[in-house]
């Protein structure tokens, strides 16, 4: 039987980070817990924190399940994670500058050229162009799992438009409203500086043609997008305009925003629109979400796009396996955070092993996200495994596989009281003139007993994440 690391209890004793939470939970009557849970749901609904589940008849907006039991890290644990996350973000950006330039890592034989140059996320439209400050991925979401007291693994990297930061901020706000005494009794590092840090990061990568305080906007696909709440939330907190493609236009060497006072030049676009849709003259001609001519302005240095078009090649799940090599190649350092052992089905021997052991592995599509298109072997039926086998055999290069990790558990409020549930963590690393992140991140929790899938689209919930001050 698989044993899982319990982040609160060690051999029946409470681990130090959770010491002050034991009495809190024991002294909370079931009626109070139910009242507080209802209060949290009411706050989420009033604020409008919902997400859409695509493919379920009209993309219904849902409340993301919120668990009131916080996840806690010591300052020492966080310091170690922070160093590893920053190291990884620097290496990923160095890789992007390289593969859109001379491709030294490919020339040196450290990563196969086919994984880069034949990758669907590799954008030829930006080859030879170096973005402002040499930064391609300005918000890097690193998904982490824990398997022991000192064992952390990177599950995947998100270099394009990682979502969820609004939940990180709102989880904290709601916890502070509902349990002020809990915060007075614990010294918890704040996360509310994230919007200020994000704005500073975006301003720091303004294009060279910008000779004044940069005008920043957030480009959203619109209110039908599953993360629209987050787009409007961040725009409000940063004090910048939230725009759609129709609100912007290109004239000469610059991008302008339509306002009631006339056109206003835009310098930095924090885009939450996929590459394919940002410029119909360069990418998909049928896109109604982008700005015609945007890429010409971008390549001439008239506007910065964050994250840069083409950044997605760095978070491909096959490229992921080479990130430790990137760290050694570009930084001359050993990786501080481990990758999960990964088999690439594009390799004959790896594919053979995967097909023989599907019942034990987690298999993912190389370009998949949100928990869709994956197989969790130990939790799947024989019929599901055989159906997935056919998919892998039909297109081996589209899949990677990983062992089923013994994800750590944290206490979680369930109908019966408190029970352990599996969790992961997504911190958000900001990369501009400096590399920084707030102490914490988004903890996602698999609310179904025994489930290892934490994605909200697959029934997962979220928790507040505490980093204790020294």
TrEMBL record:
InterPro entries: ATP-dep_Glu-Cys_Ligase-2 (IPR051680), CP_ATPgrasp_2 (IPR025841), UCP005522 (IPR016450). Residues 70-446 form the Circularly permuted ATP-grasp type domain. It comes from Cereibacter changlensis JA139. It holds the Pfam family CP_ATPgrasp_2. This is Circularly permuted ATP-grasp type 2 domain-containing protein.
